Amino acid sequence: MTDSGPAGQHTVRRHNCALVLGAIASSPGVSRAGVAARTGLTKATVSTLVDRLVTASLVREEGRQHRSGPGRRGTSLSLSPDGPCGLGVEIGVDYLATCVVGLTGEVRDERVRRVDNRDRPPGRVLARVAQELGRALARAEGERITVGGVGVAVPGLVEAPSGRVIVAPNLGWQDVDLAAELRRRVPVLPGDLVVGNEANLAAVAELDALRHRDESVLDSFVHVSGEVGIGAGIVLGGVLFDGSHGFGGELGHFPVQARGPRCPCGARGCLERLAGQDAILERARADDVETLVSLLDAGERTATAAVRSAGRMLGSALSAVVNLLDVPTIVLGGTYARLHPWLADPLTAELTDRVMGSPWRPVEVRRSVLGAEAAVRGAAASALRTVLTDPDTYIARFTQAEERTTNSVGNRIEGGSGSSPAS
Hints:
The protein has helices at residues 9-26, 32-39, 43-55, 122-142, 178-185, 198-212, 271-275, 277-284, 289-297, 301-325, 335-338, 340-354, 374-389, 391-417; strands at 59-64, 75-79, 85-91, 95-101, 107-114, 147-154, 157-159, 164-168, 173-176, 192-197, 221-226, 230-236, 239-241, 329-334, 364-367. The strands form 4 sheets. A 5-stranded mixed beta sheet has the order 5-4-3-6-10, sandwiched between helices. The chain has a 5-stranded mixed beta sheet with strand order 13-12-11-14-15, with helices on both faces. Helix 4 crosses helix 5 (178-185), helix 8 runs antiparallel to helix 10 and helix 10 packs across helix 12. Strand 8 and strand 9 form a beta hairpin. It is an alpha/beta fold. The protein is globular and about 65 Å long. It has 3 domains: 9-79, Arc Repressor Mutant, subunit A (Orthogonal Bundle); 85-200 and 375-397, Nucleotidyltransferase, domain 5, CATH 3.30.420.40; 214-368, ATPase, nucleotide binding domain (Nucleotidyltransferase, domain 5, 2-Layer Sandwich), CATH 3.30.420. One of its GO terms (molecular function) is DNA-binding transcription factor activity.
């Protein structure tokens, strides 16, 4: 076994800084003494680190705690709404979305651009992504918003540590080094760049949203992102389960019809080719989702039959997931969130017929809290998570940026104070 040696002072501070910020994030309103009790650090160490976090606008002091009984009241600490934000980008099959999310979960900016990305060369799509990313960064700068990192959601298999997209069938991509390509096109990206599967990021965003609503009891569910493709983010005991390589949750490629239509993945009869957004629109004879919803509201038979058929096929595939994993809840996201009123009954009926435990523990089918925005918000949150888990690195960047700004202003003042060449 190789001895890695003792931790240096910087390593210890980095670890302790993350420990303190994590304690504040998980217990808003906690005092310095409370943080010390939770972390095991001394009060002096906690006080020094809290001051450092406050200076970097990661933590806010909110006055004295409300408490009964004797003893000195501590100052309440919480994440700062004026702190760094995460910038999320979602590369959809037929759209690009950006979203800026703050430390306390508030959305500061959100835009969606409808554009067909399928079968376009990756370079062309990423040029559009870089353009949208640049616009989002410019808007953030104009609003004096600090961006602490960038997250990108992609509908495909992603090698998360490297940011490489292994395959994205509905985009026609294979082995695309997305992280490297974006850094080349946007060389001044702030903070870390995180790339992840859109369904997984959507599931984590949904989990966070449920926790903010105090629905912590819902800590195990399958979040189904129904778009042109179909992805599933599986949350078990409050933790995302994405498989050994991070490739789990590809619900859209469950086989539901042996001799069905050919899928972009190369197989036949995949769920998304029969119950995905495009398949439903084609069967419903609707041009887009808005038209489809209008037809459904009017009770149009062809549209209703198309959605009910998709619900049954979706229920058939999900019953296998529930029988295998014993997940109590299905959350419908993406386009499926819009179609929930018409999808839920046939889907639930199929689950009732096929899930062995349903007579004793019926499976709940519910609409996503975030709907179609879940994946892009999850991408933004994933970028912000890099700040929360390693605030010391962010603070170092923040300090360097402040010093550069100060030096730049000082040089301009100094340069402007002398005589002009014409004098």
